[in-house]
Each structure stands twice: as C-alpha cells, then as structure tokens.
Amino acid sequence: MNYPNKKINVAVLGATGAVGQRFVQLLCDHPWFHISALAASERNVGKRYEEACGWHLSDVMPEAVREMIIQPVEPVLDAQIVFSALPAQVARETEPLFAQAGYAVCSNSSAFRLDADVPVIIPEVNADHLVLLKRQKEQRGWEGLLVTSPNCTTTGIAIPLKPIDMAFGLKKVMAVSMQAVSGAGYPGLSYLDIQDNVIPFIKGEEEKIERESRALLGRMAGKQRLDADFTFSAQANRVAVSEGHTICLSLELEEKAEIAAVQDVLRDFRAPIYRPNLPSMPLFPIIVRDEEDRPQPRKDRNAGQGMQVSVGRIRPCPLLDVRMVSVVHNTLRGAASGAILNAELLVAEGYLS
Amino acid sequence: MNYPNKKINVAVLGATGAVGQRFVQLLCDHPWFHISALAASERNVGKRYEEACGWHLSDVMPEAVREMIIQPVEPVLDAQIVFSALPAQVARETEPLFAQAGYAVCSNSSAFRLDADVPVIIPEVNADHLVLLKRQKEQRGWEGLLVTSPNCTTTGIAIPLKPIDMAFGLKKVMAVSMQAVSGAGYPGLSYLDIQDNVIPFIKGEEEKIERESRALLGRMAGKQRLDADFTFSAQANRVAVSEGHTICLSLELEEKAEIAAVQDVLRDFRAPIYRPNLPSMPLFPIIVRDEEDRPQPRKDRNAGQGMQVSVGRIRPCPLLDVRMVSVVHNTLRGAASGAILNAELLVAEGYLS
Amino acid sequence: MNYPNKKINVAVLGATGAVGQRFVQLLCDHPWFHISALAASERNVGKRYEEACGWHLSDVMPEAVREMIIQPVEPVLDAQIVFSALPAQVARETEPLFAQAGYAVCSNSSAFRLDADVPVIIPEVNADHLVLLKRQKEQRGWEGLLVTSPNCTTTGIAIPLKPIDMAFGLKKVMAVSMQAVSGAGYPGLSYLDIQDNVIPFIKGEEEKIERESRALLGRMAGKQRLDADFTFSAQANRVAVSEGHTICLSLELEEKAEIAAVQDVLRDFRAPIYRPNLPSMPLFPIIVRDEEDRPQPRKDRNAGQGMQVSVGRIRPCPLLDVRMVSVVHNTLRGAASGAILNAELLVAEGYLS
Amino acid sequence: MNYPNKKINVAVLGATGAVGQRFVQLLCDHPWFHISALAASERNVGKRYEEACGWHLSDVMPEAVREMIIQPVEPVLDAQIVFSALPAQVARETEPLFAQAGYAVCSNSSAFRLDADVPVIIPEVNADHLVLLKRQKEQRGWEGLLVTSPNCTTTGIAIPLKPIDMAFGLKKVMAVSMQAVSGAGYPGLSYLDIQDNVIPFIKGEEEKIERESRALLGRMAGKQRLDADFTFSAQANRVAVSEGHTICLSLELEEKAEIAAVQDVLRDFRAPIYRPNLPSMPLFPIIVRDEEDRPQPRKDRNAGQGMQVSVGRIRPCPLLDVRMVSVVHNTLRGAASGAILNAELLVAEGYLS
C-alpha cells in the first residue's frame, strides 16, 4: 500500500454548491489532501470563496478557504486530484477534459457512472472494479482517470447487500426509500412543498438505484464488469428529513439463512481487502442496531462521522426471506465523504503516481 | 333500504380523546344522527364537555356540545348507537356490556376486530360480512350488536386492493407505509422524537395490517368468514406528517394485467352493492391521480371530505406485477368517518329496528 | 350603497403565482365577480391555465378556470376590475397602464402603496381614505383607478390597533412578528433554510410595517392623508409555519386604560361605517381569545374564512401600557381576500360606475 | 486560583431526564470531574442506567455509565458535587438535604433561584455573587452549599446585557423570545401541538426572565444582592425549533451610544475577573454576527460547544435606543453546561475545600 509522503494538492469543481461545500469542509481537515484550487461556474469566477458561497453548513466556513479566488472549471488548475460536484450535464462535458489533461477525477456526478469503462466504486464493496481504469486508459487514451461514486441511496443499499450477497447470494431485492431533502441539493425543495408531506417520486431515482446496485455488486471478468443479476424493485420517496436516507429492504436469498446468521454477516463485515489506513474508512462499515425502533435518520446518520451505515429491524419477510431497515448519511457517505474515500483508495493502490 | 324517519340518538364513548373529538365534530353536522350523550373516563365525569376536553382540532368546538355533561362509560346512556373511541383494553371490557344491553356499538378499537363473530367492515369492500352479526347474536346472546372498523393503514390498503382482487385476483402484497403522527393519538409522539426523523417501527401495526387486510378481502361461507389467502408483507414507518398515511404497494396478480387495466378498475370502482344514499359514502371511493408525483398526504388527504383514497404512480414492478402509491386520511376514512359510515350501513340494512 | 345587478367581469394579473392562485380560488366562488381573464408573464401566455400553473393549494383547481387561456399582462383584457398579484417591479410599470385604460386596479403589490394619491385600504380601518382617488384622478388623469392593500403583517397589526387608537389614542407601538413561510411566495424558502430554525430578518419588512401602519391609521385632511404620528418599532422574524403570521404587540396609550376596557373595544370593533353586505367582510373583524395560550397560527388562522384577526393574551406591559398577541391569515386577509374586499368596497361606494 | 489535583467525584440527580442526560454526556468527558453516582426517582432505582434511561441525544450513550446502577435521590451518594436536574417541586425538598449533608449542590432547578441567600450565577456575569454563600452558611447552617444557574432564556439575555450595562447603563429592556421545544423537557410538547405552529405562552416564563435578569445584573452590597432596577417586559413564545432560543431585544440606555460602540462592547466582552482555565468557559462569551440575517438557532446554537451566545442585527430602535437578536443553546449554556461551569468556578474559587 502507498502512503503519500506529503500532502497532495486537490481541487473542488462546483465548490459553491451543496456537495461542493461538504467537499471543502471535509478536505480542510484531511490528513493526505490539501485544497489548492476551488472552481465554480462563470458567474462566480474571480470572487473570493467567502463572497461567492452561500455557506449553509452548521459549522463555520474554514479560515483556510475564505480568501481563495474562484477559478473557472478548466483543466489548468494546480492539483493532482479534482473532486467533482458538478451537475450531470456540465460534468458530461467537463470531466473528460480534466481526465484527458492528466487529473485524477473523483466524481459525485451521475454523468458517467454506468459507462462500461468508468468504475463506480464503494471501496468496501467493489475496490476490485478499479481494474476498469486500465480499459479506460486503453479506450479513451486519457493521461488521467475518472472514478465515480454511486447515488446516495444506492450507497445505503449496496453496503448492507454486499456481505449478504457474499454469504448467501441475492435473488430478489425490494427497496422502498424515505429520502432526506438535502439529497435534492441546495436550495432544493421548497418548505411549502415538503413540510407536513411525503412526495412519492424522485425523478430518475428508482432506475439509478436498481442499475447502480447491480453494477456495484457485479463481478469483474477480466476488464469487463458483469452486473449482478438479482431482480430489483426500488420505490423512492421524499420525506421531511434534513439529512439521512432511510431504506426498507426485503430480500430473497439464494441460500436460506437464519435471521441471526444475517445479523452476524452484517455485523462482521469489513472491506474484502482490508485497508486499515485509509483515513476516511471506518473499521466496520455497518452498525447493526438491536433496538426495535432503530435505525432512525436523526439518531443514526452521524455514526462513524457519517461513514457507517446503520442497519436494524432484521426480521423474516412473509413474502421474500428477510427484511431490514438501513440508514445512510446522504451527503457524507452518500456523496462527499464517499468520493474522498475513493480518492484515498486511488492513492493507496498507486493510481496517482 | 331503510332511511331513518327522524334523527337517531347516538353517544360517543371516549369523547375527549383524539378520535373522540373527531366523532363529535362529524356527528354535530350529521343528517341522520344526533348526539345525545358523551361519555369518558372517570376523571372527566360530571364536567362540561368544553371543560373536560383539550379540543385540538382546527375548527372550533361545536356550540351544541359545549355544555353537555360528561357521563360514565356505562350502558345507561340515552342512545341507540354508541361510537367507541375507547383504548383497546377498556374496549375489551366495556363494549360487550353495551352490546348486551341492546346498543349498536360501532367501534374504532382493535379489541374485537378479528373475533370470528365480529364483523370488521368497510362498506365498499365487504358489506356482506354483516351477516356475521347473526352468528354474533346466536353465540353471544346480545340484545344489541358490535361492528368494528379496521386499522387506519389497513383501510388505505384494503380499498384499492378490493377492485384489483375482484378483477385479477391477488397472490402477493408488499406494503411499506409512511404513517402520520395523528395515528398515534393525542398527545402521541413528542416533537423531539419525530421532527427531522423517521421511526421505522409502530408496535403491532405490521401484524394488524397483514391480518385485517386478509379478513376484509375474505369471503363469507355461510356465517363463517374465510380470510383471503394472499401472502402479505407489511412494513410500517412513522414520518413527520400530521394527517394522511402514504403506502407504497407492490402486488402480484393471479391473472396478469396491463397497467391501464389496473387503472381502470381502480377508477371505476364503486361499492359492490351500491347504496347512493349513505350520507358519508363517496360516489367513488378511489381517486386515481395521473400526475407523476401524486398522491401526497398534504394535497390528497382531504379528497371527498377525507373519505376518498387517492391512488397514483400505478406502474409495473420488476419483482412482482404492479406498483402503486395510496394515500388515506387516517383520522377520517381511517377512523371516525369510517365508523360513522358503518353505522349508516347498519341503519340502511335494517339492523337497528 | 350600490350592489351589482349582475356579476362583474374581473381579471387576475400574475394568476399563476402563489397569491394569484388564491385570487383564482376565491373568485371562482364569488357572488359579485366573475373571472373573465387570467394574465401572466410571457412564458405562460397561450397556455391553458391548468398547464401553466403549478397549483399548490390543498383544494383542487376549480373546473371553471382549467381551460382558460393565459393572456399577456396588457390592458386589453375583457374586465372591469383587475386584481394584481404582480411582483413590485412589474407592478410599477404595468398597473398604471391598466388604471389609465379605465380598469379599477386592486393591487396586492407594494409598488405604489405609499404614494400620496394611492389609497392603501383595509375597509374596516380606513375606508374614508378612498377620497384620495379624487386626487389620483386629478393628478394622474387616469380613466380608471388604483387601490392597494397593505403588507400582510401590517394587516394583522393595523386591525387591532384601529379600535384601540380610536378609544384611547396610540403613542408608541412595539411589534415583533413571527411570520409564516407562505408570506415569501412560492417556491419561497428552501426547506433546508427554515426547518428547525428561525430567520430573524425579512428584507424591507420592518420598514413597510412601520410606515404602512401609520398610513392606515392616518386621517384625511381634505384630499391629503396625514399619517398617524405614534412611534413604531417593528422586528420581523420568519418561523417554520406554513400560513398565519403571529405578532407580539406592546402599546403605550395616550389615555390610560384598564385591560378589560382594551378587551372590550377589541371585541366590539366593527367597521366605522358599517357595510353589512360586503360579501367578504366579517361581522366582527377581531376575535378576542380568552385562553392563556391563544391565538396560535394553526388553530386561529382560518377564523372567519381567514378574514378575522385573532387577538389574545391581552395583559399589562411593565414597560409600556398593554401587551397582546395577534394572528392573521397572511395569504387570505393579508393578501388575496383583502384585495377582494377592497374591490367590494369600491363597488359598494359607487367607484365602478 | 485552585485546580483540582485529581478528579472530583460528582453525582447527577434526575439523571434519566432531558437535562440529566446532557449532564451525563458532558461529565463523561470532563477533565476535572468523574461521575461516581447517578440518582433518579423511585421507579428507576436499582436499574442499570442503560435500562432506565430512554436516551434521546444524537450521540450514543457513553460506555462508562451504561452499567451504573441508579441510586435513590438521598444524601448518601459517594460524591463531592451533585448536579441537580430535578423538577422544581422535588428540588425544593431534596436539594437542602444534600446541602446540609455537605455536598456542593449545583442546581438547574428554579426552586431556590431567587432566595436571598442562594446565588444564581453565570460566571462571566456575576461571579461576585458567590459571596452570598457566606450568608447562606450563616443562615442555614449547611455543611455544604447550593448554587443555581438561571433559566435558559434568561441566560441568553443576561450575557449580552451585562457588557452593555457596564458600558452604558440599562434603563429599559423589551424582550420577545422564540424558544426551542427542548426547553420544555422530554417528552415535552406533542408534535401535533407545535408543528406548523407558534404557541405564544410558556407558563411562568415571562416572570422568571424579568426577575432573574435583574438578579443576575444586580450588585452586591456586603452580603446582600441589590437587584438591578431597569424596567423589563418579556414575552415568551414557543416555536418549532429543536434546540436554541432566539430573543429579540430592544434596550434603552442610561448613556446614549453609537451602534458601533455597542457592537464593540459585545465583541470585546470577557468575564470581569478573567479565569482562563475553567474548562467550560469560552474565551469570548459572545460572538457578534455581522450578516444581516444572523444569528439563527440552527446555524449558531453550537457556537463554542454551545457555550457562546451569538448576537446580531444590532441596529437603532425607533422607540428605545438599540435593538438586537440573541441566540443561546438552551440545554447547553442554558442548562447543563451552565451548571457545570458554575461547579468549575466553585472549585477554582476554593469553595470545595
């Protein structure tokens, strides 16, 4: 495993938005990375970050970035890694330019997530998919590379599914999500639309969850990803919660299992190739809650600095085999922290030399 | 069909509680019924209703009941029908005393809901189950009778399931609910527990939903109810909504059906034995919403004075056959109005002579 | 007093916005007015109302307007009265064109509210200010006329201040408001900004409240309005409430008064010139609540179809003389219904001949 | 100044309640104090803390206390200091027994707060009032002592008033509070009562704020506290916020002052007798916010680990002299952390020998 011998310069693309601010907040304290550039859309270029950014996180804006001048989103930034919080349509045009110019692009956007030569990665789930980067280099001829992290809800599903799939095999998955408002960005939803309400629809979300989950649990055949072939039905709802997605899961297994056995594989789950020294990786990616009414987003979203998925209510399903509830922090594990963990993995695996 | 030729005296048991207040509010304006007595627990007996009751509905307390004196919950009330909003454990002891003494008891409590000789009724779904009252009379020897209305969430499920079951047959049902806070009564949940949160557990609720749904869709064989035999998996969640339960449904049908055909049977559904003149019965028990993001509890709970169930997002399911979302007003159709509609049915069917 | 002998054609300017929708909802049922035209900004012109409008009120969109075609905001509409829900900057340019072309413009915008020849009216408070319309005609040479209704918070203050000023004289007013989110229009505030929060600032609001209150309680000297000269300190806050502004008031009076006397003048208040037949005017503009914890926006905002201001907690002030709390429905009495009541007054007073 | 040379044993009375849990959470990490006993009401005695306590804070219950056995609230606990989170009526009977038995009682209850020989203390505001303990000892003959911390809202008012009073003198204060739900304890308010609502009344709160503020800013004349004599009008409201009280203040000063001068004295304020080494005391008790829309409870309540009061919108008042908005964390600075800081002061001042 590789460690950086000095801090690596990183840039944030789309630094003023909701996920961009999370990137900035997390990277200011990061042991391996140093923010050397902030980039955003045309209208903010040339402004001081403090001036351009309607900072809306609870903690105050870190001193280190207040006076930084916003640069254009062009591949001339002084950085090795760029974290992209760009909207999908902008990402589609811009991220390849950065990859071509030699940057390692760690993207939170959905633009390239399911391309055959672009890995979508959760290190604890499918670090081996990084081998797709070889195919990416061959096909695209890029100097740099592009790695993506999955949709926030997918993250809260794929992490508990992984150890269950390894232990028992997955045949069918039914997921109903109750997603936090911050998942829609900032300003996102109007208070008048979501207070005292549930909105049982999020555009494109159900398809993303179904397809990305099969990709993440897919296996590599040489330089090709073979998506997992379980059947998946996802239903996405928006609820009046600020942060933390809750997902009701019902699963059918290849091999029947006792509830206690399912609890055990979740509780014992660690990354397949255990990398103890990635700064953002929790020792246990999953916390199993035994209380009858947990996990709950307000109480469990911050587990492990927002990097642990909490799973509870593991019980039989009258229709499939086993039911459970999962809670994931959507803007940390499900967005900014997830992409940073991917960058740490790239460093550790030697992709940045 | 029978109509009352003058107003029928009715009493409310548990008149000061959350559902009790709804009963009072609805009955003050009722064309067939007249509130002749209010009863509540010992500590409120002898007080004026206005004084005993922490009225929490938005509309003001009706003039007609302010000065009524609270009576004990004993079968000496001047009334033909009693509406029971008693807690289950009190109901279990008290409701039989009223039935024995000759009252028609319309109960919203779960105490006797699944007894073999106690009908649990939604008039549009299973009015024919009233025949159980004959068995009830034979077995219990009561002068009066006891009819119950189902759990609020069950109501929002059984109404859309009924026409689908009639048209195509039901094999499997998966339901995930997002239930309003008022379903837990008043004061019910602490603001600190449910704001910015989801609680993925409601004690006993999943079992009630599964069993009552099969009872409601069961068929009568003489004086015996044969419960429907579809497989049912229910998962119950509490969300930060004041009124209106939302339920994500996924169904497997006996006979495959086009989505359009499912929409049609829902849209066209009327009570099997159509009774145009029950005052609380809507012409169409179901509204089908075509918008991609409806139904929503805040926008749809009041449809048809809170008596219509709104159904939308009717679409294929990758795992079973068809998915949809249902919204029901939990304290109206799902509680007080539902029990009043049952009383109207009893009158119309001649059970009160 | 004049009554219309047939329905008067009216148009709504800005018909697709938050206040515009309220206008449409209220006017569809109005005994004197008939909606003959809907106008909105360029991008919606030519569309059916149903298609152009993201209807967000709880009640469904009235049938009568669904198929109406949106017209441009230009003074060629088939109507005698136009209700303006235009933003201030658009109103500034457009409303004079309508007034010049002969329309009676009833505006909810702040654009002309404090011009010396434009009456800002609450019929129960200052109907006599309509005399300014003579000056308006002389100075502007308009065929039609322009009348405005005050800011929503001002409305909830001026109505209770009026009878107190008449009875005892006002020297000083301290007001702290807790304003509903709908006051900021739709979509208005982001859920992420206002949930679990108070925002102690609303741009321009405190100045509007202070100035408009003095205008409304001013007296006419011929064709000139002399603003009232009490001292006024207003502090405006936004809170997580959907509808209904709450205002804490503390007053110093010219002539000392018992609390009971203040309660009496509030309770007995009727419009100075009593007009029993304006359809939107409540018999009593103020409800005095005696409970120790009322008024509350959720419980009291709908009093009198949202046209009555609820006042409670009337008690001595250790610093000035008397304190109280007022609740007003901000999008009904404080916006659309208020402007419609003004139009009714114009009709009754013969300004529309 | 005295420092403890080893950790001091402390007990928490009322350890299972809302403030009790905060005490436990904060004391588990405290550099000077060690939790040696937890006491609670009869029905919890003998249970493990984990079992007795419906822990509702976001962070998990500290390991160190899970297995501790709840003891009765009787003065036989192994501790030097007891922190009391008892309800007022229990505190009134029990706290004197502990003080008599030699314990230093740091109470968050209102029971003795305004007794002439019981100091109510905010160390930065009136540490000199500790001299009342001499009078307390003389009058009551206690081995130990009793010190109280003020009401949570009072805390958010007295801290900014102190430097202004010192610099310019206070003549009049008008305060309107918007208080968080957690101030009412747990479970406290029903979701159904406070969601989408404001409750403009909190029993006894306005009187407490007015009287305690004058006590805190009073001066000592020998062993007698002379309360400050400014006029004070407080109006208390409950809003839908979980934690953090917001207070709109309007002040009249003895000596007129520029706004900039008021800002400066707030910004520069430190404890009169500066004690750099009390672990819970922030370097600056006040943060002055320059943004036009701050402070806000969700963004500012956690400033300085919840120990700093945020003040903003400092501007002239048309009626008195200066207006401002204050935000204080009600369960940290306003309750548990405040009482712990008082205990640190007692240690530092040598009252525990």
How would you characterize this protein structure?
The structure is a homotetramer of 353-residue chains. Chain A is α/β, with parallel strands linked by helices. Chain A has two domains: 8-150 and 336-348, NAD(P)-binding Rossmann-like Domain (Rossmann fold, 3-Layer(aba) Sandwich); 152-329, Dihydrodipicolinate Reductase, domain 2, CATH 3.30.360. Chain A is built from 13 helices and 14 strands. Chain A has helices spanning 18-27, 49-52, 63-66, 88-100, 123-126, 132-140, 152-168, 191-194, 205-216, 259-268, 297-300, 303-306, 332-348, and strands at residues 8-13, 33-39, 81-84, 104-107, 145-148, 170-179, 198-199, 219-221, 224-226, 231-239, 245-253, 286-288, 309-316, 322-328. Chain A has a seven-stranded mixed sheet with strand order 7-10-6-11-14-13-12, with helices on one face. The first copy, chain A, has a five-stranded parallel sheet with strand order 2-1-3-4-5, sandwiched between helices. In chain A, strands 8-9 form a two-stranded antiparallel sheet. In chain A, α1 (18-27) crosses α13 (332-348) and α7 runs parallel beside α9 (205-216). The longest helix of chain A is centred in the middle third of the chain and has 17 residues, at 152-168. Chain A is globular and about 60 Å long. Chains in contact: A-B, A-C, A-D, B-C, B-D, C-D. Chain A binds chain B through residues 172-174, 176, 178, 195-201, 210, 231-233, 235, 237, 239-242, 246, 248, 250, 292-299, 312-313, 317-320, 323, 325, and chain B through 172-174, 176, 178, 195-201, 210, 231-233, 235, 237, 239-242, 246, 248, 250, 292-299, 312-313, 317-320, 323, 325.
